[in-house]
Write a structure and sequence with these properties.
single chain; mainly beta; three-stranded antiparallel β-sheet; two-stranded antiparallel sheet; 40% strand
Length: 84
């Protein structure tokens, strides 16, 4: 899986769960079966049907799976209320 940081992008061959264990104190969230994001890099979140999409500080986007929407909401990345 590609690892993207402020220092650049690098291909890292490991399971996502192992990579998530390596992030240390960085606050983040798994948003898809193959995507973890650092919370301080999220600049925009939009709903798309049952899932959504995150925009990160570098302008790239990542999908949010339906199954991870409750965690995204609990992290405060979505507004509360109807349709959120």
């Amino acid at each position: 899986m590609p690892k993207t940081t402020t220092a650049g992008t690098e291909l890292v061959l490991m399971r996502l769960s192992d990579a998530m264990a390596e992030v240390g104190q960085t606050q983040g969230l798994q948003v898809h079966r193959s995507h973890w994001v650092a919370l301080d890099q999220v600049v925009k979140v939009i709903r798309i049907r049952d899932g959504g999409e995150l925009t990160l500080s570098d302008g790239s986007t990542r999908p949010i799976s339906r199954g991870f929407m409750p965690a995204v909401r609990a992290a405060g990345l979505l507004p509360k209320g109807r349709g959120a």
